[in-house]
Amino acid sequence: MSVFTKLLATAAVAGAMFASPALAQDNVRVALVVKALGIGFFEAAAKGAEEAAAELGNVEVIYTGPTDTTAEGQIEVINALIAQKVDAIAISANDTDALVPALKRAMQRGITVISWDSGVAPEGRQLHLNPSSNPLIGNMIIKLAADHLPDGGQVALLSATTTSTNQNIWMEEMNKVMGNYPGVEVVATVYGDDLADKSYREATGLMQSYPDLDAIIAPTSVGIVAAAQAVVDAGKVGQVNVTGLGLPSEMAGAIESGASQSFAIWNPIDLGYSATMLAYELSQNGIEAAPGAEIPMGRMGTLTLDEKNEGAMADPFVYDSSNIDAFKSIF
Amino acid sequence: MLSRLFPARETILASAIMLLLVIVASRFHGFVAPSNLANVFNDTAPLIILALGQTVVILTRCIDLSVAANLALTGMATAMINVALPGLPIPVIIAIAVMLGAIMGAINGVLVWKLAIPPIVVTLGTMTIFRGIIFLISDGKWVNSHEMSAAFTGFPRAAFLGLPVLSWTAIATVIIFAIMMARTPLGRSIFAVGGNPHAAVYTGINVGKTQFFAFVISGALAGLTGYLWVARYAVAYVDIAGGFELEVVAACVIGGISIAGGAGSVGGAVLGAIFLGVVKNALPVVNISPFWQLAISGSAILIAVAFNARAGRAKGRIILKTTEANS
């Protein structure tokens, strides 16, 4: 990052401080610090933060972050925010540990600090907001398939590699709740190694081996796209529903072709909204972030903290033909 | 005598493929249905095209490890061009793809020819550079199916006489290569350079220049495949075809292309690619644990190569019997 852009970013933050001294006295100022400016996902989170601010009335959201995804850039932003004496900082961190000293300093000055999306080590924040949790994701991936199979049916899993930690945990969590979805049978688990061509081949193989297959669940972004393409090429749109976890921008074509009825991933708008709500509650309503605490976050319900002061916001958000157009340009 | 040896080797490989098909069919009957075999061939088409390019390079005692990265970079470039100019006709896109690929091949070729850097080092370097460039031009972002035009993704899968264009491209490449290697001065000089570079120089063949052309051919084919690949899977990102270069080299080696250069045939490379294609397509349907699949693929390669090495080993001849008797 050039010195010039750093100066610009700092100037912009400083400008925001001096431009609204009158407002500052009345309003609660919540800084939403993102990994880098100009990323669709975070722009959407800022939109959610604004929504929370409008709902709360007396909140001013300062959306800021470095121009590239470095911890150093975020430390500068944090220092500028401390100088501004904001009321709360909600950060999606570029580094788990590097930000801790700066954020500790912020907390010493009475600023509420929470992390969201990408966390900070426990000593550097009061709580961490995860977009979802492994059990919720595990349940969601099978629910996505089961929702379109009222009479039950055969589903197969297309994962990343055999050693992918996330995917293995989600599939394990999924197996725990299979009892809630009677009639839905997982007939096979195959691995596409997160390669488009291998995933495509594995999906084609699944459709051959199980001619009555009703759904392919791919909890990986490469796999879900490749499987959707394989279903289109096999002429099985309408028979085999591809679902799982993917990004709206990558899955828009699959939704359009009908190969995928729906899929899920976090909703950045909800995430920004919840982070702002949580920061406000901690900063203004005297709620203490402690293990077991239940903190309200507006329309998103409440956040329950675990022993590490972390909480899961909600189920992954479901995207289908009704909302894909609004999200495909966001992330 | 050498020319009679090649068909024998190819017959063995063809029999191995038939045997493989029989074994797979005994576990999953649908696999040998003509429509499925056509699908398998179509799925193997990119590998066949790249294996032919690689064959030419290996014949000249070089190796091109940058083919997959070249493919990915060209694929990303064509996808981005398509997004920027959706109206651009497909023949123009293909021409751009072939040219881009050829330029990248030429870079390899020049480094090997003029700077005399070992080809494995050159292409290992350019492989990483090409992948890096994809990251630079794409910013790490994907180009997705809904952003590509229907004509762009439709071309390789358009059916013509019962087979998709992708398959026909592979067939056309095979025919062109068969003629080129057997009937043109370039084809013959490629064999000569690999067989005995010193002798080739005395016959007036420029060894470096021939190697340069081999890299250009390999690059151009990688470029062509880049477009076909991205259009087929309807997605372009940094890591597409990751590790595919090794599969291409494996196809050549299984097909009996000698890594030492100078020995091999177009038919062998094609059969080698088809062998790997059948294995890759059969494993998912015969219900073998995914944990075993990699091991099985690897063993198949080793067995095939060991077989080839045995069959191809020239029998030693004792020409000085008296010396042997004396020692």
UniProtKB/TrEMBL annotation, chain A:
Example of a GO cellular component annotation carried by this entry: outer membrane-bounded periplasmic space
Q: Does the keyword Repressor apply?
A: no
Q: Which Pfam families match?
A: Peripla_BP_4 (PF13407)
Give GO BP annotations, semicolon-separated.
rhamnose transmembrane transport
What keywords are annotated for this sequence in UniProt?
A: Signal
The stretch of residues making up the signal peptide is 1-24
| GO MF, one annotated term | carbohydrate binding
Q: Which residues form the Periplasmic binding protein domain?
A: 30-284
Q: Where in the cell is it found?
A: Periplasm
Q: What is its main location?
A: periplasm
Q: InterPro entries, alphabetically?
A: Bact_Solute-Bind_Prot2, Peripla_BP_I, RhaS, SBP_2_dom
Q: Which family does it belong to?
A: Belongs to the bacterial solute-binding protein 2 family.
Q: What is this protein called?
A: Autoinducer 2-binding protein LsrB
Query: What organism is listed for this UniProt entry?
Result: Pacificibacter marinus
Taxonomic classification: Bacteria, Pseudomonadati, Pseudomonadota, Alphaproteobacteria, Rhodobacterales
From TrEMBL, chain B:
GO molecular function annotations of the record: transmembrane transporter activity
Ranges annotated as spanning the membrane: 12-32, 44-60, 91-113, 120-138, 158-179, 211-234, 246-279, 291-311
UniProt keywords (A-Z) are: Cell membrane, Membrane, Transmembrane, Transmembrane helix
The compartments listed are: Cell membrane
Identify this protein by name: D-allose transport system permease protein AlsC
- Any one Pfam family here would be BPD_transp_2
Q: Which InterPro entries match?
A: ABC_transp_permease (IPR001851)
Q: Which GO terms describe its cellular component?
A: plasma membrane
Q: How does it sit in the membrane?
A: Multi-pass membrane protein
Keyword DNA repair belongs to the record: no
